[in-house]
Input
Amino acid sequence: MAIFADLLTGHGATAFVLWCGVLQLLCVLQILRRAWPFRNVRNVVSWACLWAKRVLKQTFSTEKEILHQEVASLQLDFARSYFSSANVCLCGAMSIIQINLVTGRPRWMTPISSWASLVFLSMLTLIVWCPPALSVKTLDLLCFFLNGLVALLVSPLGSKANHSWNIRFFCLIVIQVPSSVFVQNRCLGGVCYVFLTALMLSRSFLAEPEEKLDNFLQYPGTLIMVECVLLPCIYTLVINMRSMVRQKVEARLREHEVSSQLDAASALLELTCDAVMELDEDLRLVEHCPKLADMLLRDKGCASLKRARFTDLVARQDSLRAEQNLTYSQHGASNACANAFHTHLVDSCSSKFRTEVFQVKYQMPSGRQCHLIGLRDFTDLKSLAGDKAADAIHDTCPNDEFDAHGTSLEAPLRQRSERSHASASTSEFSYALAESEPSNQGMKYIDKREVEGVGVVEHTVVLKQKKIFLDLDMQTMLVSAASAPVTSLVGRHLAEIFISEYTMELCNRLCRLAQQSPFLPDSVVSFEHMPLFCAPRVIEITGAMQLARSALGDIHVILSFRQSDQPKTLQL
Output
């Protein structure tokens, strides 16, 4: 003991003070380094490196292994926080020892315990300054080292008999309980606890009677009784803390799983629907949906659809039924259910169009009800849900002619006449295609007709099986190509041939869809009774327009149309 007592005298005391000073300086630098503005960047880089190593190392893992890895990761974060806090606190405690050594004041700690504390501070400094030194694999080793340090402090080398029990209690709360939370091998924590208890009992049995008088806890009977009371309390505390860590990880994994399922459902709906959005419990949009704004023909400068009630976008006569379908719950459904129904939406032009609604209603882990909605405009298309959809809307086209593939030749692709801006303003006009002789194949000569009030006699020609095509260059806003008999439109500006602003809106809508997607969308916009200026007359056409891409990468719009039924001559 005399040899150990000389460790804090003379040169030993000087070395102790200098060593503590260096470690305390490193602690101060560490605090300043954490206050550096770029600490977040370093933390993100370090986290990304650790995450990449973990992913590359264990690519194929079972569900239990993934759960174990996440729990170990959370325990590692707790260990980092614990060692960082312990480093700061121990630096302050070592300052007291330094002051006592410099001023020559009496010390109650033995030289061995002082040097053991210095070694502990050295380990903490190494962990703080070298984060890779602390990993999941080294947690058990650090726990063993900490318990060995506690054993040294409560042994006859580290403390006196009347101080050993105080040190034991202090280390139990400050070191043993926290280390039991992040230790990977539970048996290691139990063995260390039993070993320390046996060490304290051995000191109690071997203590002198005079030492037992200084502290009643030195009696073996009292010590055994206290340990019997502490053991269940410590065990319950550690088990509950580890259980809380595991429950937190399980909640995080469940939330991630729900998010993945939601992303998968959204991706599936986006394949078949024109717009996908999320509604809250009050049937309000959680976020603004640009694709829904395009469906409703709303400009980018219009108000955001965020927090807008979905039933306010539905036609008035269908809003109540739509709300019932959205809030409908399948019998026996626990957390999620899906259904489809048909309704009518109203665009910014106060025009109604048929919409197929696909809904997935689910419950978040927090208990909040959510609705994942997919909207599909099937005005001129076949319903995907068919008769399975609630309030199904059926098409009735008894007089349509069909080609070999079953496609209707007479009915337009979409019935959008109600949504046309020009339908009301041009209702008083009548149209005819051109004055020509019916010489081309596929054209049917009808009759000579005298225009009332003018006295002009014309030949009216109807295209029965032949379509007309226009190629519109949306970059130059010119007609780049046209089929007969409208080749005179080539090179004309679009504003000169389309007298309705709604036509330009349809073209711009297709261009916006092309700009929002890295691939060319396979979208078709149809029209009916659209006015087209083909000098010297205005004709009325019905058909569809679709996107195309040129060899230079420019966006074009292809118009495929035929003359509307019952063509008439414009009164000039």
About this structure: Confidence is low (pLDDT under 50) at residues 396-464, 566-572. Residues 532 and 539 are 5 Å apart (CA to CA). The longest helix spans residues 220-272.
